[in-house]
Write a structure and sequence with these properties.
Blueprint: E1 2-6, E2 9-11, E3 17-18, E4 25-26, E5 32-34, H1 36-52, E6 55-61, H2 67-75, E7 80-84, H3 94-112, E8 118-122, H4 133-141, E9 144-149, E10 151-155, E11 158-165, E12 168-175, E13 178-182, H5 194-202, E14 206-208, H6 249-262
Parallel strand pairs: 1-6, 1-8, 6-7, 7-14, 8-13, 9-13
Antiparallel strand pairs: 2-5, 3-4, 10-11, 11-12
Helix pairs in contact: 2-5, 3-4
The structure holds flavin-adenine dinucleotide.
């Protein structure tokens, strides 16, 4: 099973504010995190890998610092990671972004000699919130698409997905190769061990530039992005401490140790 997970590094929107005059995000001093829905997507991929074997590739587009997000993915189940980064891709809207990411996916598939069985995306990025990039990737690559996956399992050469709906839930099946966008699932993303975190820190991540990811200049960057942002708004903030749930005692202990390690409280 060959799985690719699209991962966007986003500002932690629970600590971000909007400039009241310019109506733009004030990013200064705001920590960057893996988009939470992408963390759920990676966890879904890791569970599939645990069940049937395979390999997970994490792919991000962004500045050099997005490698931190990819390293986090390597520490919790991804086997390899690539960053698409080039100044000519700056200013891309969602369609240009999905076009660039799809071109990079094709490049990786050529290298592998086969399409990825599954491409996972989060249902949306918490800073952009459009939820467009996953479905657009499916369109660019002409793949089957299932959105808002809540649970999934592999059945032969297909993925069976449970998706919540107003009436209850839908069960959907897509044959490989397919694109699946993932919402908050019942499975909390696993936490890295200190060992896997240290190994990921040392990992080399390949940067793909416009030299390899060749996208027509009318389909990338500002020139390829006709979208105009008319307004932005502040999402409601809901955060009070951190609750660790859904883990047994030893896993919860390991997670707390890992959190304290991250905060520099234990070394
Ligand atoms: P969604 O569609 O909500 O994301 C869904 C899923 O797609 C994510 O969960 C993730 O799995 C995947 N995904 C999305 N983006 C990425 C990514 N970059 N890498 C890997 N996976 C991804 N943003 C900038 O950073 N720099 C700019 O200069 C810039 N200029 C813009 C100019 C315009 C006119 C517009 C409209 C937007 C611009 N943006 C820019 C924002 C950028 O287009 C979006 O952040 C991006 O297209 C993703 O859209 P979204 O955040 O709505 O993601």
């Amino acid at each position: 099973m060959n799985i690719l997970v699209c991962v966007k590094q986003v500002p932690d929107t629970t600590s971000i504010k909007i400039d009241p005059i310019k109506h733009t995000l004030i990013r200064t001093g705001v920590p960057s995190i893996v988009n939470p829905y992408d963390a759920y997507a990676l966890e879904m991929a890791a569970r599939i890998k645990d069940a049937v074997g395979g390999k997970i590739c994490a792919l991000s587009m962004g500045p050099e610092m997005a490698k931190d997000a990819l390293k986090e993915c390597l520490s919790v189940g991804a086997d390899e990671a690539y960053l698409i980064s080039d100044r000519v891709f700056g200013g891309s809207d969602t369609l240009a972004t999905s076009c660039i990411i799809s071109t990079a996916i094709k490049l990786l598939e050529e290298k592998n000699g086969a399409p990825f069985d599954l491409i996972f995306c989060g249902k949306q990025a918490i800073d952009g919130d459009t939820g467009q990039v996953g479905p657009e990737i499916a369109e660019h690559l002409d793949r089957a698409l299932i959105t808002y996956a809540y649970e999934s399992q592999i059945e032969g050469d297909a993925i069976k997905v449970r998706r919540e709906s107003d009436e209850g839930y839908d069960m959907l099946l897509a044959h490989f190769p397919a694109v699946v966008t993932v919402e908050k699932t019942p499975y909390e993303p696993r936490y890295p061990s200190i060992k896997s975190k240290m190994a990921a820190r040392k990992a080399q991540i390949t940067t793909l530039t416009s030299a390899e990811v060749t996208v027509d200049e009318n389909s990338r960057g500002l020139k390829g992005s006709p979208t105009k942002v008319k307004s932005t708004y502040t999402a409601e903030v809901q955060k009070n401490g951190q609750t660790i749930s859904g883990l047994d005692g030893s896993l919860a202990g390991a997670k707390i140790a890992s959190l304290l390690f991250d905060a520099g409280i234990i070394k």
